[in-house]
């Protein structure tokens, strides 16, 4: 019955007076504002990265001046084109999703959510435009790579999935990588979350920025989400990153035996090489095609 009542209110919502979307961090934002949330998707999108924040914003409810419940966030998907995309799957394509808009015709968002995914043509330019319009951008998991590629984390702090810390640090030396946190505020409108479920915590943090901790807690309670990372911001310990090593041996010429070592920390790899005949030990190696 509660969902039915909310659906009716959503039909009536356009008739309510709509004010400009509040700015995160304000103590008393207008409660009848409509806040547009664009969720970026493309092939290989990790489901919880976009579904987690989507659920948070979808379930946020406010009381208007008459005590009626309304939903302040208006959600839609945006992609390079409107062609259907597939999310991640277990060894095969996952969910098929048809985007609501392309970058070319998407309504101007107030908040952008971008999780792990392949990306696509026009993404970097669109993120830059949204940022230039002073809209909120929040990455989840390796979506941070897409935001960093657009230069929006340059000279600022950011985080990503703990398995990919080394890759991120190597690819974006101008970004200060923060570890063992659930999310990072690079500036008042630019955020990044760690992996997967961290996106839920960041979304709740953003709800708290807009409407206060009480509303954020009510949203978490409605979701039956008992995680407290959005309050404590305590992330995964570095000790949780699995460490593996592989070694190959061969030769690069007569009498020149070599050993190639691969050190794998989570999803990040580094390579070194030994050439005993030349007294070379642990020489750094970059493989063709390596990140």
The strands making up the biggest β-sheet line up spatially as 7-4-1-8-9-13-12
Count the beta strands.
Answer: 17
Instruction: Please provide the ordered H/E string of secondary-structure elements.
Output: HEHEEEEEEEHEHEHEEEHHHEEEE
- Helicity level, as a percent range? 25-40%
Shape summary: elongated
Taken as a percent bin, the fraction of beta residues is: 25-35%
- Mean pLDDT, rounded to whole units? 88
Q: What structural class should be given to the helix and strand makeup?
A: alpha/beta
- The low-pLDDT segments are 1-23, 25-31
- Distinct helical segment count: 8
If you compute it from the alpha carbons, what radius of gyration comes out, rounded to the nearest whole angstrom? 22 Å
- First CA to last CA: what distance? 51 Å
Main β sheet profile: 7 strands, mixed
Q: Any overview of this molecule?
A:
This protein is elongated. Mean pLDDT is 88; it is low at 1-23 and 25-31. It is built from eight helices and 17 strands. The strands form five sheets. Strands 7-4-1-8-9-13-12 form a seven-stranded mixed beta sheet, sandwiched between helices. A four-stranded antiparallel beta sheet has the order 14-15-16-17. A two-stranded antiparallel ribbon has the order 2-3. Helix 2 runs parallel beside helix 6 (198-211) and helix 6 packs across helix 7 (213-222). Helix 5 (165-171) links the parallel strand 10 and strand 11. It is α/β, with parallel strands linked by helices.
Secondary-structure map:
Blueprint: H1 2-12, E1 35-40, H2 47-59, E2 62-63, E3 69-70, E4 73-79, E5 85-86, E6 96-97, E7 101-102, E8 111-114, H3 123-132, E9 136-140, H4 143-149, E10 157-158, H5 165-171, E11 176-177, E12 183-187, E13 190-193, H6 198-211, H7 213-222, H8 229-232, E14 243-251, E15 257-265, E16 268-275, E17 280-285
Helix pairs in contact: 2-6, 6-7
């Amino acid at each position: 019955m509660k969902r039915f009542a909310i659906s009716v209110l959503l039909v009536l919502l356009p008739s309510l007076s709509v004010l400009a979307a509040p700015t995160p961090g304000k103590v008393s934002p207008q409660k009848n504002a409509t806040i547009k949330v664009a969720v970026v998707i493309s092939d290989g999108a990790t489901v919880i990265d976009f579904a987690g924040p989507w659920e948070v914003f979808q379930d946020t409810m406010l009381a208007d001046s008459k005590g009626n419940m309304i939903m302040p966030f208006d959600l839609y998907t945006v992609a390079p084109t409107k062609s259907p995309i597939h999310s991640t799957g277990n060894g095969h394509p996952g969910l098929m999703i048809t985007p609501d808009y392309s970058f070319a015709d998407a309504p101007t968002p107030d908040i952008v959510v971008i999780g792990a995914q392949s990306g696509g043509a026009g993404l970097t330019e669109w993120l830059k435009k949204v940022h230039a319009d002073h809209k909120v951008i929040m990455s989840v998991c390796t979506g941070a790579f897409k935001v960093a590629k657009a230069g929006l984390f340059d000279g600022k702090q950011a985080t990503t999935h703990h398995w990919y810390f080394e890759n991120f640090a190597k690819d974006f030396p101008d970004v200060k990588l923060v570890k063992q946190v659930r999310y990072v505020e690079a500036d008042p409108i630019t955020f990044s979350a760690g992996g997967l479920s961290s996106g839920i915590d960041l979304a709740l943090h953003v709800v708290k920025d807009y409407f206060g901790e009480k509303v954020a807690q009510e949203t978490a309670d409605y979701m039956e989400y008992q995680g407290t990372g959005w309050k404590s911001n305590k992330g995964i310990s570095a000790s949780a990153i699995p460490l593996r090593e592989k070694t190959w041996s061969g030769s690069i010429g007569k009498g020149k035996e070599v050993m190639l070592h691969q050190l794998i920390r989570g999803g990040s790899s580094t390579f070194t090489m030994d050439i005993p005949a030349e007294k070379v030990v642990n020489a750094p190696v970059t493989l063709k095609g390596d990140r």
